[in-house]
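User: Please run a holo structure prediction.
Assistant: Happy to. Please share the sequence and the ligand.
User: Here you go; the ligand is iron/sulfur cluster.
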Amino acid sequence: MEKIFTRPESLLDVPTHYCAGCGHGVVQRLIAEVIDSLGAREKTIGIAPVGCAVLAYNYFDFDMSEAPHGRPPAVATGIKRVHPENLVFAYQGDGDLAAIGIAEIIHTANRGENITVIFVNNAVYGMTNGQMAPTSIMNQKTITTPQGRTSSEGYPLKVCELLSVLDGSSFLARVSTSTPENIRLTKKTILKGFTTQIEKKGFALVEVLSACPVYLRMEPEESLKFIDNEMTKTFPLGVFKDWETNNS
Ligand SMILES: Cc1ncc(C[n+]2csc(CCOP(=O)(O)OP(=O)(O)O)c2C)c(N)n1
Ligand code: SF4
Ligand SMILES: [Mg+2]
């Protein structure tokens, strides 16, 4: 019998702690498939964030490090500079990257560090029970904005757009996990995020719009519709910068 489906070598065979319908597991599987396809498992080093993906080091079967909240780009910078032949990536949530870690990501991109960042934007702080994130959309109800986000909490931070004005950034794209078609595009885009580093073209960030059904207080299916119908109005999908095509 032909085997048509198997677990990527870069993923360990362990039970997941993610809630039903969570996007983190999908994104991590795609990263593992991409690392396998590059034959890079032995030389990959990932940095886990603080957030629901803090346990990413329990799932990937390659070297992983942990960083304090928001600091994966700084840790990735140090590791990549010391081990330039390794494939180094930071994996971050939106609270981690766009709130407490906003200074690290801006300076890392601005320095053009030759690393890859996978940025999982689920519009909320998942791990700490659903507070507003910098990427929560206007009118979004969270436990800290029970009536919905208003301008007094500021406006949703558009990370790809923000980093695109920096001379140091080389590849910036926003994708989503809302449909099988979007998941396939996410895999291709993650691959480009890694080949940017392999080609020594500098800083690459892939923002993935992802579902947190628990703190959107929705059924998993509804949370995917929320990505397509609500999140993408604020966070349009697309490539914001590409060193290969000079798109910026
Ligand atoms: C220095 C510090 N401040 C605050 C926290 C509490 N904290 C843990 S995770 C988190 C937010 C995580 O949100 P996000 O990065 O969006 O990850 P998600 O769980 O949504 O994937 C916060 C505020 C912490 N662990 N350390
Ligand atoms: S709380 Fe949200 S982000 Fe965290 S594991 Fe559950 S669904 Fe995923
Ligand atoms: Mg989040």
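The beta strands are 44-48, 63-66, 87-93, 116-121, 169-176, 203-209, 238-242.
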